[in-house]
Model the fold of this input.
Amino acid sequence: MRTISGSTKLLGVLGNPVRHSLSPVIHNSALAEMGLDWCYLAMPCEPKNLEITIKALRNMNCKGLNITIPLKEKALPLCKQISSISKKISAVNTLIPNESEGWKGDNTDVAGFLAPLKNINLENKNAILLGCGGSARAVFLGLEILNIKTITVVGRNADKLNSFIKEMSININPKKLSPQVKGILEKDLNLIDYIKTSDLIINATPIGMTSNKSEIKMPLGHEIWTHLEKGTTLYDLIYTPRPTKWLENGLNMNCNVIDGLEMLIQQGAASLRLWSNFEEIPIKLMRESALNHLNS
Ligand code: NAP
Done:
């Protein structure tokens, strides 16, 4: 075990809740391997305290921060510099100290989301995105980068769904024919036809996460997924439980399934690259540490 001394520098994740975050596990194993005298902590932070907290951490020479639910959008205007990706999706998940005693905001969720899809050809294919919250923004941009033909966003609240579509569509190059973007409410019966014809379906809602075992559900309920076509790729951003009930059902329907663990690891590795300027990040070790922790 590493010794924490007077010269150990701090890294961490701010959010609420952060108690069950896997980020300290994956980052501290990587930091030890990289020989960096840094320590990564999960730090609970209420939205009202975010500004003062990041200012204090910057003054304490904190080497970098991850930002998670519900602070990703709130952190954006508090940064002195913002990366172009963060601007596009109005959300930051990584803060890097900048030269003027402030923070530079970046977003590694897009790269994390894309990593497990790198060997699947999704160009000109149809995708459904369940949810229109914070992580759905990164997913949407990822789908655009993949040159997806149609993105159908499913939401439960018409106002939120419409403003998500409007905001995310602003960045689409009007000269490009795709993606064609459509919003659909979860109760819309046409949803069945979209499910039958989609190549990729992403769950960016928290439905199915381990909280109370007896309450574990599937997004949109059970019945609608009987219409899944064999070979459709189901991508659940959730990684506890592994697999989720939705992915378990997908496996039974001969679908390809991807859970959120690789996204978590890849976005973490991308953040660590930004903080450390190391080219080589021990991603394999980060994955092993996460799996050991989840299986313990
Ligand atoms: P969020 O900003 O709170 O958005 C959640 C979305 O799901 C919203 O559109 C919300 O609808 C919808 N939703 C919530 N409960 C619902 C319900 N009971 N029925 C229907 N829709 C519901 O959360 P987020 O940051 O996007 O995170 C979503 C999930 O992704 C979480 O499980 C999170 O752990 C996971 N995640 C994983 C990674 C990873 O690295 N693997 C990264 C980021 C997030 P309303 O807007 O109407 O409330």
Notes: The chain is about 35% helix and 20% strand. The chain has a mean pLDDT of 94. The CA atoms of residues 21 and 42 lie 7 Å apart.
